[in-house]
Write a structure and sequence with these properties.
Layout lengths: L20 H11 L3 E4 L9 E4 L5 E3 L1 E4 L2 E16 L9 E10 L1 H10 L5 H5 L6 E7 L3 E2 H19 L4 H13 L6 E2 L4 E7 L3 E8 L2 E9 L1 H12 L6 H16 L1
């Protein structure tokens, strides 16, 4: 399926409780030492955390793309590395990835599981969640998308073969966001939000401006995209491990 895909081809806080960011920051810093508080001010929109390897900032919360009165809040962040062809033994940070969830609904889901099961919870359709990816260097959109696709295509085919059509729509759209050069600049953000009902919204953003957005209704696609970063065979094991550990610690304490 993917081998036949050409480069660039394809179709053109209201009343809700918002948990304080410093809680997540302190837990992360104590467990893995990769995050440091920056401009910390509890429960304010300016509260941020720095991902240690890339220095990229993550805000306390973001509104949902389809409901601006509802928010997802920061859990943990880490770096995804790549190995350039000219130095296969030297890894460098490609982008930072941060996990956000609806804390109240996630807490209720985890409570119902009786402890543990963080990965299973995060890969369900039971509550809104967001993966925020911020590029640490200029990035080829074909290579970026291929790396995600390689992790999920076979698994998605086993789960729901007919939904591979949604994966093709998604990957062709994302590659095309790089224009004719198929490049995205350092600092560009790819935000993927999974809302209940199997709605997955992918936004390409720059300084809070939406450059492009694609919304698809496919629970198998949403599951596959999140499993690429949080599943048992993720793109970056250390980042997945940290996000899962902090999520479970926040939800179970």
């Amino acid at each position: 399926w993917f081998a036949s895909w050409g480069r660039g081809d394809g179709e053109e806080e209201g009343g809700k409780r918002r948990w304080p960011l410093p809680v997540a920051a302190a837990l992360a810093a104590s467990s893995v030492g990769c995050l440091t508080p920056a401009d910390a001010a509890p429960d304010t929109p300016k509260a941020t955390v720095l991902e240690g390897e890339t220095g990229i900032k993550f805000k306390a919360s973001y509104p949902l793309p389809n409901d601006e009165k509802s928010f997802v809040s920061f859990v943990e962040a880490g770096a995804v590395t790549s190995r350039p062809w000219w130095n296969p033994f030297g890894a460098q940070a490609a982008y930072a990835v941060g996990l956000y969830v609806d804390y109240e609904k996630a807490y209720a889901d985890m409570e119902g599981r009786g402890g543990g099961g963080g990965r299973e919870s995060l890969l369900t359709d039971n509550y809104p969640k967001t993966l925020r990816l911020v590029l640490a260097k200029e990035t080829d959109t074909f290579e970026f998308t291929s790396r995600i696709n390689d992790k999920i295509e076979a698994r998605m085919a086993k789960k729901s073969y007919v939904d591979l059509a949604w994966l093709e729509l998604w990957r062709n759209w994302l590659v095309n966001q790089g224009g004719y050069k198929q490049k995205l600049n350092k600092g560009v953000e790819i935000r993927m939000t999974w809302e209940q009902g199997g709605v997955i919204t992918t936004e390409v953003r720059r300084r809070d401006k939406v450059l492009g957005a694609k919304q698809l209704s496919s629970a198998p696609l949403a599951w596959a995209l999140f499993s690429a970063f949080l599943g048992d065979a993720p793109i970056e094991h250390s980042a997945a491990k940290d996000m899962l550990a902090t999520f479970e610690e926040l939800m179970l304490h």
